[in-house]
Amino acid sequence: MVFDNRTMHRASDSESAGRQAPRSRCWGDRIVRQRQVVWRILLSVGLVASAAQAQGQEGIPPELLALLVEPSEPPVPRMIAGQIVDENQRPLAGVEVVVLESNENDGASQRVASATSDLIGHYQIPLGEWTQRRYPQGKVLPVDWVDGDPPLLTIVAKAPGRASFRVGVSSADAVNLGDVTDIMLPPAASLRGVVTKADGTPVSGAVVSATVGVAWPRIDDGIFRARTDAQGRYEIADLIAFSQDEPTDKGRPVAYGMVKATRSLQLPGLIVGDDNHINLTVEHPDFAVKHMRCKRVPGEVNVSLDPAAILSGRVVAASGSGVSEALVCVASVASAEPEAEGEGDVGRRYVETVRTDVDGRYLFRSLPAGDYVASARLGHYQYMAPTNLQAKAGETMIADDLVASSPCLIRVRLIDDQTGQPLAIEKNVLALFFLTTGDADRQTTSAVPVLLTGDHFELRSRAGDFSLSFSHLRGEDDTELYDPIPFQIAGRIDVDPAPPLDVSFRLRSQRMAEEARKKHQASVAQAEQHARDGQFEAAIELLDEALAASPKSMPARRLRADARSKLQQYREAIEDYTALLTDDEVLEVLGDDAQRITIRNDLAFILATAPDESLRDGARAVELALEAVQLAEQSHVLFDTVAVAYAETGDFSEAIRWMEKAIALDPQREAYQRHLQLMRAGQPVRQEEEAQDDDGAGP
Fold this sequence. Notes:
Elements: H1 5-12, H2 14-18, H3 20-54, H4 62-67, E1 79-85, E2 96-103, E3 109-116, E4 122-126, H5 128-134, E5 151-158, E6 165-170, H6 171-176, E7 179-180, E8 183-184, E9 189-196, E10 207-211, E11 225-227, E12 233-239, E13 242-243, E14 278-283, E15 290-294, E16 296-297, E17 299-300, E18 303-304, E19 309-316, E20 327-332, E21 344-345, E22 351-355, E23 361-367, E24 370-378, E25 382-391, E26 396-398, E27 402-403, E28 408-416, E29 430-439, E30 442-453, E31 456-461, E32 464-474, E33 482-484, E34 488-493, E35 501-509, H7 510-532, H8 536-549, H9 554-566, H10 570-582, H11 584-590, H12 593-609, H13 618-631, H14 636-649, H15 652-665, H16 670-680, H17 687-691
Parallel strand pairs: 1-7, 1-8, 9-17, 9-18, 19-26, 19-27, 28-35
Antiparallel strand pairs: 1-4, 2-3, 2-5, 5-6, 9-12, 10-11, 10-14, 13-16, 14-15, 15-21, 19-23, 20-22, 20-24, 24-25, 28-31, 29-30, 29-32, 30-31, 32-34, 33-35
């Protein structure tokens, strides 16, 4: 995750990813040359500094340092680099930058590598040694959590008197593409307070962490984090000063230094949410975890801890033996009551995870009181049925066993939509599926990336209802290879273990899809020309073929409806117009009101005036015509349609009123005068009469 405009281009341009390898080599050569230039600059800076000191000045003039702040170089694979500056965009030297590796599930972290910023604030952290140890093959898959838990990298920077910095980085991006993280460290401000028991007794050794959103990974004390002393006092001394009452120009306060400085947007800290606060999490092994909210720094927040609820249990196989290394998760059931306003306790949803020991046992020692759902999984697919629990403060609860189920193997084959044969897929590709499992009252949806196994992809689902949809197929360069045809496979697995299930999805290559789009557009354009020339039969023939290939094409269906109407194929025209107004996907494509208005008007006119009595529906025509009028400004064409619709229902007084409104807007149109005469005579309007009049109203 890189908050830098360069990364936005990298994430959105698939072709740039495809050219990544040769570009990286080119940039590598360029960077070597730039390093030589930088060292010459540093030598010159040193000479200037010596001259300044000889004249009684201390250090390097700020104006000269500001000139050295240049955009960071493009990313290089297996390298995290960037520049560190202060709130005035002047480089900061001597700042230690550390890269940590963490596990997404338990938040534990360990140091990967570190570096110190040089005189002009630049730092470089090579990841070659870590990559070789963590990924011997030399690269990470575009989605790097196919096997095992996802490795995350966290960049941390801290300097005396400065607000600290922390941000997560994708290990796949850092290894495959490289990462550029420019860091701003503004002056620091402190948050203080005292942590006590309910009776006011100080609590020593409690950990107080400041976060916005997710608190993981757990980082060393001193980085948005402090530990209470013997008197229960704590001080987090590396935050940014902010107040809820003094918002930034973005309308929200700045919390603490966790945002990269980009060349287009200078932000000295993390923008907090609309509720304008940061979260404090207080943890101690003998008490329940407490969440607080803080709305100003510098400031003081005192915390009173409550007795913890303790939960223990086992994860077992169907045979009853314990399952070791299963990941157990407890999540509090969200409270329907709103969070308390102001600083103080926050009824926040609590989630905690732990792994089972060799006997399958797990233990949670610091749960806040409340209702929880406990679940467990082993690997990516073997889930245990969730259990509802109620934890009470100061009490120990032993939960029912979480029983592991044997997952069902689902073999997925990808089929070429044109040939109906299995796709010829390279081995180094990754398919992403969305798998939803569980019963109707509790379902879990997971994004599941899968490598090719032979001629298919293998997933696993637990017993119960499931649905599976295909998202995309990516190559090693992170480009999408095929366009999926929207489709979802659903079913139910009733036995445990269940026999393998074979399914397939149909895809078309992007080249084929683009060719199909171009052919469709050409057919519609040619049909439009035929319609302008009055060759409606030829237009319909082309549009039939276009809609057979693309049934959801709104332009093709709309054009065919108009052509059918001109040929007095009213039944078929009604079918097309109705499809345009009832298909949700087509309605989204219609977008602007102009399309919706004309389709309603044209359909209403046919329903009111069709020669075949079985096709006419006056009530529906009135409904559609009035809807069109409500969507548009005053229009004599729409008023005429409302009038003929009322005439079809036999309400000639209302028909005459609307017809007179149409004539008031266009008194010269002869068709309107004829319609008015028919209505005054108590007769409806029919299409065969309209066909005899070249200036006839209606569609």
